[in-house]
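Protocol step 4 of 6: structure prediction from sequence.
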Amino acid sequence: MPQLGFGLIPGGAPGTELQNFTRRAFVPKLIVQNRNATPLVAAFFGNAKVATGGVSSVTVPMQGAPYVNTQSSDYSGRFNQPAALNPGVNAEWNLKIVITPIPFLGAEGLLQWDAAVIPILAARMNDAGNSQAEYFSTQLWTNATYGSQDIDGLPLIAAAAGTYAGLSRAANTWLQANLIAAGGVAPTRALLNQYITSAAKFNNGEMPDFGITGPGTWSRLSKDYLGLEQYMITPGTGFDRSKTEGPRSGFTALMVSGVPIYVDHAYGVEGTIYFFKAKYTAFYMHQAAAFAFTGFSSTLPNYQLGYVGAVVTVLETVCVRPKSVTSITGLLFDTV
């Protein structure tokens, strides 16, 4: 609504007249207020793999036990008859379909013809990618249900029981993730170093590539760093004359034993840190449906003047080595 009676705009009848006879001074930009940055989604898309059609669109052969057994011998060189072992199994994932419908009303197009400050259709098209990114982030942090229509989430991947990739974790213990209950302690570098060591041990010696957590947990961990910061002054100069506009303080990622820990401000679960080995966890995306736009079709068959289109993405979160994932729960966190 127009704001009359203060600033440059008069009140009363003069303000009303100006309101009726004067164009608004629009800023021709649409400022989005309700979308969030999604670092975990960005990481998984950065490591995304291509999938195609077929039943069980992502099928990964896995070896869960030895194919051969080693034994000692003596001078004779004799050995026991080898058994034909069959430890190979298939881990299978179905791709999930994500649809963002986009309406375009006929009357809307006529009204905005040569008069649009912000084309509403362009705003919808721009928001489609943001909407799907938020959906992906929400499901990644919350979905713990196997076989749902939504993409698999971290609570499902980082589990030690139930079914994953069509296989029982009880029968195939190598599908179990590394679960650590911190028990209500504050995260520190020494404690995180212990957990990272546990993650590497559980994953047969492979260190995780990164960790991710919520903002309050990340803030609590950063307190173990900030008190130890030191600032070095070049002799003959001062901070006020530094070419970098003063000393840097704080961190983009908190490094512990060479493993960066990032913050997911919007969706990260407080009190929980997940560690990953990037090469084992990624999105698998259908090559024909990676944010694909269907084009617009007329809604006249539904007796309505207008069009409807959709942005379609077909993908699944796939972790081919769940033991590379470590989940730490029960950490203290700040209120932010």
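Step 5 (inspection) to follow. The chain is about 25% helix and 25% strand.
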